[in-house]
């Protein structure tokens, strides 16, 4: 009888989206897959994503997907073509976790429970004989000859191949403490400076209490400086001392490597200046004895009117029959270009993802293998790739994990 072929032992550090998806796709008769995680259960960060609903991908084509990648979109060409959003939707639908598409092509489990996405991935890992070891924080990694030695708090493992799927630095309470960057540097990799991404933006204006439960719908947020000008349309919300919501989170990723920017808000992006001016005239003619405070309630949510008046200096008691053309133009300008005083981005720990990470110029985009150290791979958020909000970042985790798995499965 012939000798039994020795299996390739592959250790993946991190049982988040990229690690789980890598493991279940790489498992085979030729590979022994071990997932190591510092948490007591898998997918800790996924549990809180999408406000507990897990926005797993975005139901768009590859071209649109790439357009939503902020950092190093070209690096992802191979991975996203190999495993696209359509493939993600098919995978979960076929493995007992049906998905649905909502506004903005955001894809969620039909159940609206993040746990169902995680349970599906863990179940497939177990089905494919992946060994998951929890509560083991990796303290040190050594490479001796062709083997990696992974030293944990009370155990040591040896592997033929090593995959780093430790995530970024945001939401450190979920275990994303930036260990992957330390490991990358140890093996000679450059780590691009880390920045907050998909995070609230601190502003200098005082946010009134009544605004804290307000969602501004269908507004436009602009940011600009001498060499940068971006505008995003959608919804936003308010926090004590900061603004948040989909358009703010996306804007934070676009400005996190810019000099201080000027922020402005268009409350009525669907109306150009001429149409908005006609509306102001109509309201004035129909209600000549009302004042500007009343006029604002016809244009803005009541919760934000006091904030608008406080930060524009508009005379709220001025009767509409006294509203001159110049005063009307001033009001129009404030409605279309309301200034928010940029302070800073929230701390990196409050970002949904981390911008920066392992330099992708040192990673093979087809396999995710290090160009510096044979047998070492990086997948998911630890890489210097990130995208706007809407399911794109979790898709990056799945696509890079799948590409790595395909390469190692042979």
Quickly name the level 1 CATH class of the largest domain.
Alpha Beta
Q: What's the rounded overall pLDDT mean?
A: 95
Reported by name, the CATH topology of the largest domain is FAD/NAD(P)-binding domain
Helix content, binned percent: 25-40%
Shape: elongated
Look at the structure and name the CATH superfamily of the largest domain. FAD/NAD(P)-binding domain
- Number of E-state strands: 22
Proportion of residues in extended strands: 25-35%
Q: What structural category do the secondary elements indicate?
A: alpha+beta
**Please, how many domains?**
2
The CATH architecture of the largest domain can be named as: 3-Layer(bba) Sandwich
Strand order of the largest sheet: 18-17-14-15-16-13-19
Sequence stretches where pLDDT stays below 50 over 5 or more residues: none
Number of helices: 13
Rg from C-alpha positions? Answer: 25 Å
Largest sheet: 7 strands, antiparallel
Distance between the termini: 25 Å
Q: Please, could you describe this protein's structure?
A:
The chain has 410 residues and is α+β, with helices and mostly antiparallel strands. The protein folds into 2 domains: 8-196 and 352-409, FAD/NAD(P)-binding domain; 200-346, no CATH class. 32% of the residues lie in helices and 26% in strands. It has 13 helices and 22 strands. The strands form 6 sheets. A 7-stranded antiparallel β-sheet has the order 18-17-14-15-16-13-19. A 5-stranded parallel β-sheet has the order 7-2-1-11-21, covered by helices on one side. Helix 1 (17-26) runs parallel beside helix 6, helix 1 packs parallel to helix 13 and helix 9 (273-286) packs across helix 12. The longest helix has 18 residues, at 392-409. The chain starts with 7 loop residues before the first strand and ends with a helix. The relative contact order is 0.19.
